[in-house]
């Protein structure tokens, strides 16, 4: 075979290899691209949390007790405000966790009274939360309902606030889905964090108003 013919044959072989590599590369890109495109659609976006979470530990100032204003509240509460059961919206027993609180005997004292609330209700909206539950231990009546409000300030924990349903609130009318404004200001500690979730879609379910427990008549 002449040198010219051999050279032409080598060129054709080289071009064939390049073409084969290009086709293989295109196929790989197409299948890889399809896999990448299909991945998020098949798996879907990562689901968000179904429960809100209120957490933190802080000393706050209760302005209505100027001689001994310090109180400590520790939150670890999870939940949702309602759920749909048999076509009806239920407001009961959707929260879990606990709120612990400490009332020092005197300013700066390590002695005082601890109480614990078993959480059964949590509702959040942005940096604001309402948490409610019943007393399980402490100086207050066991089974009594207590509610709390929490404001986790976006500016930082030094601006956090919280409120509780006694002291300056009529405790005879404490509902699980209501709490006073966060009237106590942050003093020290880790502060509070509200991980909010959107309200669940009731999907046309019937909302039945629960009875209002223990509210006094308007003329009292």
Tell me the layout of helices and strands.
Layout: H1 3-43, E1 52-61, E2 70-79, E3 83-85, E4 88-90, E5 95-104, E6 112-125, E7 128-137, E8 145-151, E9 161-164, E10 184-195, E11 206-207
Parallel strand pairs: 4-11
Antiparallel strand pairs: 1-2, 1-10, 2-5, 3-4, 5-6, 6-7, 7-8, 8-9, 9-10
Signal peptide: 1-37
Keywords: Signal
Biased composition (Low complexity): 200-209
In short:
Keywords: Signal. By secondary structure, this protein is α+β, with helices and mostly antiparallel strands.
Account of the 3D structure:
The chain is of the alpha+beta class and 220 residues long. The protein folds into 2 domains: 1-46; 52-207. Helices cover 19% and strands 39% of the residues. It has 1 helix and 11 strands, in the order αβββββββββββ. It has one helix at 3-43; strands at residues 52-61, 70-79, 83-85, 88-90, 95-104, 112-125, 128-137, 145-151, 161-164, 184-195, 206-207. It has an 8-stranded antiparallel beta barrel. β3 (83-85) and β4 (88-90) form a beta hairpin. The longest helix has 41 residues, at 3-43. The chain is globular and about 55 Å long. Residues 2-11 and 17-47 have low confidence and may be disordered. Residues 1-37 form the signal peptide. Residues 200-209 have a biased composition (Low complexity). Residues 200-220 are annotated as: Disordered. Keywords: Signal. Residues 210-220 have a biased composition (Pro residues).
């Amino acid at each position: 075979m002449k040198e010219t013919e051999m050279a032409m044959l080598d060129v054709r072989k080289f071009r064939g290899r390049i073409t084969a590599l290009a086709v293989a590369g295109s196929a790989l890109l197409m299948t890889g691209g399809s896999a990448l495109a299909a991945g998020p659609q098949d798996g879907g976006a990562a689901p968000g949390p179904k429960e809100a979470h209120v957490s933190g530990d802080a000393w706050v100032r209760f302005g209505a007790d100027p001689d001994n204003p310090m109180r400590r509240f520790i939150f670890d509460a999870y939940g949702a405000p309602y759920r749909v059961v048999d076509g009806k919206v239920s407001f009961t027993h959707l929260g879990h966790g606990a709120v612990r609180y400490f009332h020092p005997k005197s300013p700066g004292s390590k002695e005082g009274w601890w109480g614990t609330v078993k959480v059964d209700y949590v509702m959040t909206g942005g940096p604001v939360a309402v948490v409610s539950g019943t007393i399980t231990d402490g100086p207050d009546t066991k089974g009594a309902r207590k509610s709390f409000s929490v404001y986790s300030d976006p500016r930082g924990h030094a601006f956090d606030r919280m409120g509780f349903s006694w002291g300056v609130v009529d405790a005879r009318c404490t509902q699980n889905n209501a709490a006073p404004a966060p009237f106590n200001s942050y003093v020290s500690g880790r502060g509070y964090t509200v991980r909010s979730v959107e309200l669940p879609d009731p999907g046309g379910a019937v909302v039945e108003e629960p009875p209002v427990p223990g509210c006094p008549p308007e003329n009292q």
